[in-house]
Amino acid sequence: MMEESTLLRRGDADALAQGLADARGRLSRLLDAYERTLPRGLEVPYAAELNPPRWEFGHVAWFEEFWIGRHPGRLSGLAATADSPRAASWWPAADALYDSSKVSHTSRWHLDLPSAATTRRYAAAVRERTLALLAGTPDDDALLYPYRLALAHEDMHGEAWSYMAQHLALDVADALEATGPAAVAPEADGEATLPAAKHRLGHDGPGYAFDNELGAHDVELAAYTIDRAPVTWARYLPFVEDGGYREAHWWSPEGWAWRQRANLAAPRYLRRDDDAGGTWQRATFGRWMPLDPQQPAVNLSRHEAEAWCRWAGRRLPTEAEWDHAAQALGDACTWGQVWEWTASPFAPYPGFVPHPYADYSQPWFDGRPVLRGASFATAPRMRSRAYRNYFPAGRNDIWAGFRTCAVELAG
Is the full-model pTM beyond 0.90? Predict the structure, then answer.
């Protein structure tokens, strides 16, 4: 049986059908949970980090239909184009409602969206067509490309819905089948020193890869010392208790401006319980619980990670250092509970060529940082050492933390 972590990138038609069913089951369970906990037809208040749930569920179905069921060039693999003529949608208004490249973020709150029941019927009709086309498709990367793309897209939105539930304090832990990052095991503590090396960064070989992973190239790395696991709350909270959120000199100018706008005196979703001796509590999906100091620190912006590093005399790893450590240390490098901020900007690798879904990477080469790893809410088939995530440095709603490197002393 194929390992779940390779299903997306190397799976055949049967494995992809299994993955699509799993992804839709997860998204449907979350939609059910949202319907139980949100008032007035799945309405949510506007926020730059959110999408209206009915819009987002419809968008996932539209994306799948656009790239598979309606796309005459679906058999062309990477030679397919986004602007080729499409067959009509099952839902006549779908293009006007759900094309994220043309429907602005703010306008999604003002659309005349169909009901949740109608949206479910649309998604089911699209999926029936997808599975009919997928059945019996040969195990060929070009032929399976659009199905892998649609599966990855749905899994990304499934994880985004966990961010939304955390943002809205919705109790969806049962639907997500996860309650937060696991504690870092004692044996994963400490750091490792790696010698200078030439490291191959990027995807080589067959199978599915995102366009921003291609362009494998060698990177010369000096010797460095890196944490074996992400920074835990036990390491992070002394910075908070030492006044780190009140003292500008620990922060970059951009980071301090962000902290002032956010009006934070501590990380998001944390509070002190004065009735319990001032111990820390953390809210996860609306439930306040005692903070486990051995859990990875999470829901931190890159600005907070950088500020802690200045306070602690550490630094963030570059993307290449993170990737090299994960490869060289193997199981001795713990990752996958939180996304991890790096010091590197999200930029194209050499020879970058956008894939047919050109809006996936190319518009975001704007200086925002790379995150590596995965989170507890990431679908196992999406977990890959090669995967490059990217968010603006101020995002603290995502399941993101960080690990650090020692600062090298000159001479």
Answer: yes
